[in-house]
Amino acid sequence: MFADKILGPVKQWGYLVKDLDQAMACWVEQLGVGPWWGYRNVTVQALTDGQTSEVTMSVGLAYHQGMQIELIHQTNEVHSPYSYFYENNDDAQVLQQIAYMVPDISVAIAECESRGMHEVGRIMPAPELNYVYMSSPAMKGLTIELMPHDQGFLDEYARCAGEAAEWDGSEPYRLITL
C-alpha cells in the first residue's frame, strides 16, 4: 500500500453528521460497522478564518478493516471548520476529512502548502494540541486533517481496531457524556 513519505498512511475518515445517533445507527444497521466509542458534549477551541470559537460537539469512533471512522456532530451554532456543513447542506452526513498522524505538524503543513493546499482551520482540544485542517480549491468540501503523533492514541487505536475486528454485534454504542 502506498503511504505518503511526509504524511504517512491515512489513519481516519471523518464525517460530519446532522444527528450522531441516527448516523451511528445507519453505520451499524445498514453497513455492519461497529461498535462505536466516543463522547457527547465535548467542548474544544476552534480557529477558523482568524476567529476563535468554542465548539460543542459529540463524536463517535468506529473501526472498519483497521481504518478509524469518525462521526462529528457539532451541537452549537458557532463558526468552526465544520459550520459550512450545518449552514448550507441538506445531507445527513458527508465525508469532511481524511486524517494523517504526522511526526511534525510544521513540516506537514509546509508540505501541504507546497502541494497547493492552505490552512482552513484548527481544532484545539488542549492548549498544546492542535488538529490542523488543510484544503485546496480542487478539494472543496474535503480537508486533510493533520494530527500530531501520539503514541497513546495509536495504542488505543490498535486496541479498538482489534476489538472491532472481533465484534459480534453486541453493545454497538459505547459513548460517554462529558
Briefly say what this structure is.
By secondary structure, the protein is α/β, with parallel strands linked by helices. It has helices at 20-29, 83-88, 105-114, 151-165, and strands at residues 10-17, 36-48, 51-64, 67-74, 93-102, 118-126, 129-135, 143-148, 173-177.
Kindly describe this structure.
The protein is α/β, with parallel strands linked by helices. The protein is built from four helices and nine strands; from the N terminus they run βαβββαβαβββαβ. It has a single domain, classed as 2,3-Dihydroxybiphenyl 1,2-Dioxygenase, domain 1, CATH 3.10.180.10. Strands 1-4-3-2-6-7-8-5 form an eight-stranded mixed β-barrel. Strand 6 and strand 7 form a beta hairpin. The longest helix is centred in the last third of the chain and has 15 residues. The protein is globular, with a radius of gyration of 16 Å. 32% of the residues are buried. The mean pLDDT is 94.
Features:
single chain; 178 residues; alpha/beta; 2,3-Dihydroxybiphenyl 1,2-Dioxygenase, domain 1; 8-stranded mixed beta barrel; 4 helices; 9 strands
